[in-house]
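User: For a benchmark we're assembling, each entry needs the component sequences followed by a predicted structure for the full assembly. Here are entry 17's components. Please fill in the structure.
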Amino acid sequence: MVEEEGIRRYIAHAILWIGIAIVAFPVYIAIVASTQDNALIANGQMSLLPGGHFFEVYYQTIFVGTSGSTREPVGNMMLNSLVMALAIAIGKIAISIISAYAIVYFRFPFRMPIFWIIFITLMLPVEVRIYPTYKIVADLHMLDSYAGLSLPLIASATATLLFRQFFMTVPDELLEASRIDGAGPLRFFWDTLLPLSRTNMAALFVILFILGWNQYLWPLLITTRDDMQTIQVGIRKMITTTDALTEWPIVMATAVLAMLPPVFVVVAMQKLFVRGLVETEK
Amino acid sequence: MQKQAIFRSKLLPYALVAPQLAIVLIFFYWPALQAVIQSFLLQDAFGLSTSFVWFDNYVELLRDRAYFEAIVRTFFFSFAIAVSSLSFALLLAVMADKPLRGSTLYRTLLIWPYAVAPPVVGVLWIFMLHPSLGVLSRYLRGLGIDWNPLLDGNQAAALIILAAAWKQISYNFLFFLAGLQSIPKSVIEAAAIDGARPMRRFWTVIFPLLSPTIFFLLVVNIVYAFFDTFGIIDTMTRGGPGTSTVTLVYKVYSDGLLGGNLGSSAAQSVILMIMVIVLTGIQFRFVERKVTY
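Assistant: Structure for entry 17:
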């Protein structure tokens, strides 16, 4: 490698730390604000150091909820978000891996048209079909339900493509060997292909979990009951109170809690996540 | 490319694709088709009668000044977000690509904002830059800037761009880092032996080799700015003040929510769909060249 002179190296370190500071500053402010007294914040006199209300603010946020707008404790919202994120991630992986299996390992009429039908959904994000989809979910009586929250988002062209691409690289000998052992298509899938796909599934899970956890527009439309609300929707309702003063420490505590699961997943599974990201390109 | 070893079964493959196909047809194609049909219909104010009006909704839309402004605004936001976030991420990636002590730590500390949800990003930034209680607003006022994004449309737009670009830094950083690491070191060394100084090496050797990544990220960032900024806008400004932060997606949402004009909202959806198809097409061409199935 080209050698780095001392001074340049220091500049590089400095720029990186400035970058990290910019990236972390809003979150630092959120954590600090979540430990302070609301009156102080409302006066515009928030201090840049943590206050002494950490336990009482987080207790109220998780178990009690705000006194004004939503009244739903954040604990419950997090549970809703968790169910939705898991349903989306696991559902997408499950239906994608079996359809990729069918497309790669079988020859059947309409194989390619079916592949294209799935592929084209890449171009139909929920934002562009929002009202008609809402109407269908309403007609199916799935408003305010976990099924309504997750099913319309569960198809995944990218996951199907990824598994298809991976199956293509699996050597043919494996199938022949398991056929000699007398295994049928389902047995081969379960005993051979699934274990081989474990790392792909894990990388995909990380990305899809974050995608599900961070959904906003869709749950905003289809949940009307407070107890079905996800945390992303709840947090907006907290800051748009018209009748009462916004309880900023609780809002900021909610923001911190809403960030925890996806950020934890990214940091803990960094290697898998990075590989998954670069492989799927999204 | 086709597999040589395959299974023979008549019904099983259909059973395997059935779940995905069912969801795709019920929740993707049927609503998309409904949007297209709806966009050719005109409903009276009480929803009692509908008539087929051909392209009237589209013509109406293209004549509408507010829609035209939303298009221009969306593209302006997209480019501003993409350019600011890409240039900052590239700077950080170039630094992190150097053989420095602690580079893994730097990476970890820089990539997590990827995981933060847009509405949370919105809440964080509106809190910091809120006119009366924001920590940063105090300093802006100290600098003599009359800061109030809740009243000033340009400031609101700047705030949206800032927050949206902030969130996108980590994603761009990752791809730039991957791109930089795939450039053979020998190419850079050769340039160094030829006497090229670091800045010159960057602009004449590294930057051109990185251009496919830059192009790809530009498209991804534009798609992001089109759709994912919805959560940021909705929490920070709700499209206001006036209509100064209403983007195309926000307009579909707000026009439809107010319930006034379903035909127009559907026509807007269809136009958006066409834009996504073009952007996805471009993106896929790039992926296809890089990844082979």
